Amino acid sequence: MKILAIESSCDETAAAVVEDGRTVLSSVIASQVEEHRLYGGVVPEIASRRHAEAIVPVVSRALEEAKLGLSDIDALAVTYAPGLIGALLVGVNFAKGLALSTGLPLVPVHHLRSHIASNYISNKELKPPFLCLVVSGGHSHIVMVEDYTRMKIIGRTRDDAAGEAFDKAARTMGMPYPGGIELDKVAEGGDPRAFKLPRPIVHDAPYDFSFSGLKTAVINLLHNSAQKGETLDRADVCASFRYAVVDCLCTNFIKAAEELNVGRLVIAGGVSANSLLRKTLAEECKKRGWEFYMPEKSLCGDNAAMVGAQGYYEFISGVKADSNLNAYATMSIEEPIF
Ligand code: KG4
Ligand code: ZN
Fold it and tell me: Are 270 and 163 in contact (CB under 8 A)?
């Protein structure tokens, strides 16, 4: 079954053709990041306008690269929540128009569910159940994936998402948006124990995260040293901060897996590209004899191939939208409503 998938939840306009949820026939991504970089973050109105310009050429290219026409496609899938509302609406409305004109079924896909599904492309043997750490620019969740379309949140962030914390720390150090990637690179040359940073814990919820205190601690460290006219070693600051974030993520994730007795761990979302997170979890899982899966780095960020993967499993479980489909800025991963 071939699905044409569309993604426009943030600053990437993407389209892909995916076969049976696992094989990518084409994947096209038009990134707007260069333009948003001028403002230090995503400007929602600019994002919507760029999606409106890019959506037709991006979808056409995805079909061309797959060497297919619309008549070869069996269903359409589109990200409808969560994300920037004006950005989501471009993809949703385009997909609805396409569904109406072709008669193809339209499958609404939750953005975080699709991040999880990027793993079905990179790891052909992976099947639920598993425990997944979903870490992106807007969310940090520990999710029990009971089945392809049945999920339960075990832990979540109480304030900033991990990606957001990485980006804000990087911005304070003058790195361009989104700074998480560069911070990760610079951290490779530093000492993770050079600066002692806090490991905030949420007392009444052992699997929940809190990153705002940690973010403030590193910002204060940088500002205080600047006021004193001192220059801190950037690589050491990056390494210490990255170590602190990864330590918080891994501690709760491993604790949840132990207590829930799950021996199959998976990571997903933009932050799952982080080198230290990938290395630490691979080692910790190996030590315990657990299975560990991650998406290839090119599938960690926003793309439409993952939407086609999750769209396939949603479709075979009976999920189908009609022409009333709307977009939503927030939506639970557990029981998405459309
Ligand atoms: O999943 P994603 O592409 O978009 C959202 O759905 O939010 O995640 C983007 C986030 C950004 O905050 C970015 O800085 C972060 O993922 N990110 C990283 C790395 N690569 C991307 N954070 C840390 N280390 C990385 N290597
Ligand atoms: Zn995302």
Answer: yes
